[in-house]
Design a protein that fits this description.
The chain is α+β, with helices and mostly antiparallel strands. It is built from 11 helices and 34 strands.
Length: about 800
Amino acid sequence: MSMHSDYSEKRWRGVRGAAGVLLAGVMAGAALVGCVHYRAKPLAAGKVAADFEGRSLSDAGLRVFLETNHVSGEWPRRGWELESLTLAAFYFSPELDLARAQWGTARAGVRTAGQRPNPTLSASPQYNATTFAPSPWVAAFNLDIPIETAGKRGHRIAQAGHLSDAAKLNIAGTAWQVRGRLRRALVDFYAAGEQQRLLAVQQAAQEQNVKLLEGQLAAGAVSPAEVTRERIALDTTRLAVPDAARQRAESRVAMAEAIGIPLGALDGVEISFAGLDRVPPGLDTPTARRQALLNRADVLAGLSEYAASEAALRLEVAKQYPDIHLNPGYEYDQGDNKWGVGLSLELPVLNQNQGPIAEAEARRSESAAKFNALQARVLAEIERGMAAYRAGLEKSATADSLLVNLEKQERGLRGRLEAGEVSRSEVIAGQVELAAARLARADAVAKAQQALGQLEEALQSPVQWPKGAWEASPRKEAQSVVGVLPQLAQTIALPDVKGGFDLMAVDLAGRRLFLNAEDNNTTEVIDLADGKLARTITGMQEPKWVVYRPELHKLYVANGNGAVRVLDSRTFEPVRTIEFKEKANNLRFDAKTGELFVGVGKKFGAIGIVDTRTDSVTAEIPLANFPKQFEVEGNFIYVNVPEANHVAVIDRRKKAVVATWPVGGAKGNIPMGFDRARHRLFIGCEPGKLAVLDSSSGRQVAVLDIAPEPDGVWYDAKRRCIYISCGEGSLDLVRQVDADHYEFAGRVPTAKGAATSLFVPELEEVFVAVPQREGQGAELRAYKVNPK
């Protein structure tokens, strides 16, 4: 081998070594991320069929599901009514399984939307056979690192998030369809059973009548035509009996299908028809119509789809701005080692994405048109349902009146028979007529009940009847009340925030909102006027609460490491750090005294007092354990101490706890709201409870069911209602009837983990922070409160 070839070989080994290092680095990065491995989940028709045949109403999982939804009692249940059967349908329904799976797909789409584009590695080795250079080899290795611009990723996440919300709302819409089918089948099953029973009574009366007439015919007292007419009526009734049996069997099949169980699972089950044998009176038509138009699941889903189309349009507009591609690379050029960095971007000279923008605008218009058409269809459904129900009420009233008169007539005929004033044949004829009237009345009630079910499906809400007119549901779940439910008005994506949030504060004059991203160790400054992130303040350590004081131009941020950082609210430069020995959590400010109150503690508990004129600690008031949210009113501070399950009352003059009030019937008392005018504390607890305490005595005046994981409780004095943000994924509404009486008034779906909130009365908005989770991007949502 020549020296030239030996040298070339050495240089080529250098090329391979450099390429290997580059490739190994890329592969190592991919390995750190990790790969998902395929896992087979075979689907066998035989096993699916066997699983379906094995379903029963004594399923252990169904029992847990019922108890979770506040339906308990003996097990297995002997009696099943509409409510418990509806829950069984929600548990077994394949349509709901499909809707949940579609929501899972949509949530996965959020994760896909949040992915960043991968870099690309390219290699181009060459061999120059005619060169006289030290080495004939030329090899280039390049990385293409794409960098998205103009917030495209945030728009993708927002679009996918809205589509996920629409898919989640579709579950609620599907649930109403499942309930509607079950209710129709149950009403048909009841009506067919009543028809069978009343036909048997009518048939017996007609048979007796025909037998009597046949005797009279033999004696020459009646004509053959009279006997023939009654025989025809009897045969007609006999023909109706098997038809009623067929309808009952078919409705039983439909009931099993609606629940999602085999027909045999209904064997031996006692079905209760409580409430289906009577027709409730009228309802508040305008309220019901408005409720459906604003709060039906498909209407809300339509709004989410429109929001998704707007996000899609923003994405296409952002695509006018080209992405940047960084191209670091290495080249071995016939013995020379060359390193370089390239920069490339698309030049928008032939098009500026005008076609896709036009398509996105058209799709947005299409989405708006679909929503308008949906509302028109919903309104028509409501009007049809109301018209059918009014007709059903009128027919039922007429049938009731007729039945009362015929019963009175039949009693009179029996009395006259005993007195010898009428013949037995006249009494029997009256009984036949009465039996026919009872059949007509049962049919009228069944049709009114079906019309009522149609109306409830149109409203997507159980119709609210006057007190005492309708049997109450054991779950006592009140439905949405129109006119006070917050409506989603704005969504601001925070694509760079990881994890969850704690509290926020607002700068009304500057239209800014300060949001503590607890897991991200940042405080986010959001421009509410432009609807975008204005700045990220770094250097925090598990930031908790934030207080903004415009008159001092200061921002106070409590941190998990025990520090309260003081920032200049104009420049966000640090001014001072106030140190506490354990976690600093909740903050409250008293503008009259200039005192800042700090909830301190993790292993112990105290309320620290800071003089904001000097930003120095003036006192620490010990507690039984670490504090959570608290309220300051006059000379007293009311503090939630969850580990002790009580509210500690601090006298500010004595700087000591002067009372402790137990929170009965619930645990984990963390969030707190306050109605100062009526001296009422609102305390969120687990598992999904809102306790109301009299702040002048500690007396517990009410406890209501709300969604689990309450974290923000806000009292709206103008509307006399309470907004509760819950980590389960909802913004709950409780209405204050008076100081001691409250009612659950509605629920707005938000997102899983969206517990942090802030109500700003001046803006009439509730802000809810949605955390970043798998399949869910971080964002701030603003819910507009409807004017009273």
